[in-house]
Amino acid sequence: MNLAQALSDAMACFCALARSESVGECWDRDSALEGLSVGAVVSHVCIQTGWSETVVTRPGPVDHPVVTAGIWFADVRPGPGYDPDVHQGVVQQSVQLATRGHQSVTDKLDRVTGRLRDRLTGAELDRLVGLEPVDQHAVTLRDFVRTRIVEFVVHADDLAASVGVAEA
Q1: Bond from prior residue into 61 cis (ω within 30 degrees of 0)
Q2: How big is the CA angle at 167 (ends 164 and 168), to the nearest 5 degrees?
Q3: Do you find a cis peptide bond into 133, omega within 30 degrees of 0?
Q4: What is the mean pLDDT of residues 11-20?
Q5: Neighbours of 26 (CB within 10 A)
Q6: Minimal CB count within 10 Å: which of 67, 119, 156, 166?
Q7: First-to-last C-alpha distance (Å) of the chain
Q8: For 130, phi and psi rounded to 5 degrees?
Q9: Closest-CA residue to 39 (of 59, 20, 66, 61)
Q10: Collapsing DSSP states into helix, strand and coil, what is residue 75?
Q11: φ, ψ for residue 66, nearest 5 deg
């Protein structure tokens, strides 16, 4: 299995869970993630997938320092490189999108995951992609796809725990 297929599978798993009746019924309830409702978790993944599509489709950076996925992930998690303003902005956008409701957000999620899947078909995984506006670094597309797999798997687990279903 290649990375694009692994991401496609992770997206399909998350989308199926997000679309489930259990998630719809719990949409406005607190999730397993502090400060986010179940709907805001789905909305967060939807927003991140839209950003991922942008990252994948724009030309690579010219002047950004290149880092590995591990170093980048360390910078976007609480620690020395962590920017709480960026995190709070992501939370606020997720909460706002969730107000559109289960059907609207999952319809949008289906559209953005489909477009990302299409964009990755045949993509050159060794090319560099910039991570702005989240970060001023570059990673290989291969590493970026790996981070997106983690995003979908981790948040599928968050959703499953939040609505009381077996892990996705």
Answers
A1: no
A2: 115
A3: yes
A4: 97
A5: 20
A6: 166
A7: 19
A8: -85, 150
A9: 20
A10: helix
A11: -90, 130
Hey, what are 139's tokens?
A: 């990673």
Alpha helix positions (H), the chain: 3-19, 21-25, 38-57, 69-76, 84-98, 102-120, 141-163
Within a 10 A sphere around the Cβ of 127, how many other Cβ atoms?
Answer: 14
41-67 pLDDT, tens digit per residue, is 999 999 999 999 999 998 766 678 888
Give the percent of the chain with pLDDT over 90.
66
At 79, which amino acid appears?
A: G
Q: Give dist(CA 156, CA 168) in Å, integer.
A: 6
For residue 98, give the nearest of 155, 20, 50, 26 by alpha carbon. 26
Which pair of structure tokens corresponds to residue 30? 């607190």
What span, in angstroms and rounded, lies between the C-alpha atoms of 106 and 53?
17
pTM score, whole prediction: 0.89
Residue 119 pLDDT grade (very low, low, confident, very high; cuts 50, 70, 90): very high
Q: State how far the Cα of 93 lies from the Cα of 10, in Å rounded to an integer.
A: 23
Name the 3-class secondary structure at 99: coil
CA distance 50 to 93: 12
Each residue's pLDDT tens digit, 156-168: 999 999 999 875 4
